[in-house]
Amino acid sequence: MKKNVSFDVIIKEKVTHLEESSKGEEMEETELWEMVRSKRKPAWRVSGRTAFWIGGVAASLTLLLIIHFASDTDHERVTFSRNMRAVVPSDIHKEDDPHRVDDLILSRCAEINEICQTPEFKELRKEFDLIEDELKDLQLMISHYGADEFIIQSKIKIENHRSEIAFRMMQMLMS
Amino acid sequence: MKNLILLVGFSIMVVSGVTGQDEVHVATRTIEKRLEYAQGDELEIRAEKAVINISTWDKKHISLELKLISKHKKKETARSELDLLKYDVSTVGRKHIIKNFFEASDKFVRVKGNLLTEFTLKVPQGCDIVLTNQYGKLSVTNLNTNMSAFLKFVDCEVTNGTGLLNIESSFGNIYVSGFSGSLKARLERSNLELISFDGIADLDTHYGEVSIEGGLFKNLAVNGIRTKIDFATSRIEAYNYDVKTTFSTLRVPESIGSDLLLDNESQQLAKNFKINNPRIKLHTTYGSINLKQIFSASKK
Question: What total of structural domains would you count in chain B?
């Protein structure tokens, strides 16, 4: 019984001691957390009102930048692609020799001068000479812009027109 | 015999055309611009070797997309020659000026590939346009303003729209369809096709062909030299006619064949159906005139 009493006393003392020691540990832990919290504090702190204004200005600036880039239509860019291109004849750069036709007309005019002096023939002759100027302009365009379908079409028009004029002149000289 | 051989030779003279296709690298510089417009502003386009597309819209600014294009088999050449093709956009007084041009440090530079410029323009209604272009193409749709175009070796297509249209063309093909207003054209070695035109047309032509079909003319005058003229209408009796060709032939519908006057040099028709009818004047030399009635319900 004695032993039992002493055992109870011992237990009671131990429990009491444990509670006291636990209280002490709890205090230390609270202090520790306080210390951790204090270390986690930011270097600067803003009030809620200031944060509202800063956020508002930042949002406005972002919006303005988006509007600026969306509304500005002045753009310039270089892109590359592959495409098919019409192959032009290699002799497109060469000028035809108008002197061959010219020589024929001149020699014929030497034989029948009266036709070559008519207003109609003179007008055709003037047109024939103008075509030579057009061919020179065309050669300049080829050197600057290269030969493509527009140039070929233009040359065909000139050549066909010159043929028509030469044909009409020859018709007159034959009649 | 010698002359006959020459004539045959001239008549079969043909320039060799496109012989096929090859693959090339295409370098394209694209420029997009917005030009502010106020009433009374003008737009001037100075182009060469260019494809131009124009339309009018209901917004208050001019929208420009410019493509400078360089083509060559080698990518490096296409890229380097792209820098020879320049453009400029400026405003002088009330006039916006857009131009493209070739510029090289050495004037004897000869390009190895092809250079081309494409203009795509949207223009406010009422913004007058003055345009020059050579060796290219012009396409105008729904024009609702006045336009003057000075073209050389340019195929031009004007589809629908209204306003004053002034065209000077040399070595071009001009196609005008569904346009109403006023057309003044001075054509040298060019062909004109005028379809369903309503209004006043005044045409001076020298070497070429004029074909007119349908429409509702308030007045039409064609003064041609060495020009072939075709005029077809479903409303033959709605007009009065002054038609004459010298050194060529005039064909008219049977119903008015008896009014045809012939002499050694010329053939002409003077016919007034009603005193207030609009006047159709077709005069030419060394070119035939064909006046005919059409019966298609789809044509005016």
Answer: 2
Check whether B173 has a pLDDT greater than 80.
yes
Interchain CB contact of A147 with B (< 8 Å): yes
- Residue contact B31–A84, C-beta within 8 A: no
Chain B CA closest to residue A143: B110
Residue B8 lies in a domain: no
Same domain, B38 and B181: no
Angle at A138 between CA A136 and CA A143, to 5 degrees: 100
* Rounded Cα gap, residues A86 and A82, in angstroms: 13
Is there a contact between A73 and B18 if contact means CB atoms under 8 Å apart? Answer: no
Mean pLDDT value across residues B26-48: 96
Reduced 3-state DSSP string for A70-82? HHCCCEEEEEEEE
Residue B23: its chain A contacts at CB < 8 A? 82-85
Nearest neighbour of B26 by CB, restricted to A80, A145, A166: A80
Counted residue by residue, chain B has a size of 300
Q: What is the pLDDT of residue A28?
A: 66
A122-144 residue pLDDT tens: 989 898 888 888 988 898 899 99
Q: Where are the alpha helices (DSSP H) in chain B?
A: 2-11, 75-82
Same domain, yes or no: B203 and B133: no
Handedness of CA A144, A149, A150, A155 (dihedral sign): positive
